[in-house]
Amino acid sequence: MYGQTDTIVRLSILTGSSLNYNFNSYTKLENGISSPYSTSGWTRFRVYVRRRNAGVVENAPWYLSVRSASADIANDIGGMGLALSTLRIRALATDPWLSLTATDQTIASGITNASSLTREITIYYECGVPPGCTTVMGQSDGYYYGDLIFTLSYGP
């Protein structure tokens, strides 16, 4: 008797479901905002992958990708938002920073070579921090916010 090799793939948000920045001083406009988002992380996920047919060893990859839900980082006064390139993101403190875009970018990945895998991933952010981010100087001060879409995919 043969059964399907069904796979359960789940992404759970543990902390930090909303991302926002308050540029309320000249120093923040000039230097950007990096703490606490870039040092302790803001968003934490749990990736869970389980194959129902545990006898099958697939060594199948999984990918966590991210993209912006909009074309810019909006502000609370309804004016022009910040360019996506003002926000950088990474999944490990040792990973290189990626500039946020409106298309999917792989931010973390791994191989599932056992019957199940559970891994926690912390996401780090910086906004307007030179030299890697587009500067915020010249923009209106205020509260900026953005929605990010994270997608967990499994398989080749």
Structural class: mainly beta
Q: Any idea what the CATH architecture is?
A: Sandwich
- Bulk shape: elongated
> What is the fold named in CATH at topology level?
Immunoglobulin-like
Strand order of the largest sheet: 1-3-10-7-8
Q: How many domains comprise the coordinates? A: 1
In the CATH scheme, the class would be Mainly Beta
N- and C-termini, Cα separation: 27 Å
Helix-strand string: EEHEEEEEEEEEE
**Which regions have little confidence, pLDDT < 50, spanning 5+ residues?**
none
Number of helices: 1
The Rg value, from CA coordinates, equals 18 Å
Please bin the fraction of helical residues. Answer: under 10%
Q: Largest sheet, if any?
A: 5 strands, antiparallel
In percent, how much strand structure appears in the residues? over 45%
Number of strands: 12
Report the average pLDDT across residues: 83
Q: Can you give a write-up of this model?
A:
This protein is mainly β and 156 residues long. The protein has a single domain (7-151), classed as Immunoglobulin-like. Helices cover 4% and strands 49% of the residues. The strands form three sheets. Strands 1-3-10-7-8 form a five-stranded antiparallel β-sheet, with no helix packed on it. A four-stranded antiparallel β-sheet has the order 2-11-5-6. Strand 5 and strand 6 (82-83) form a beta hairpin. The radius of gyration is 18 Å and the shape is elongated. The mean pLDDT is 83.
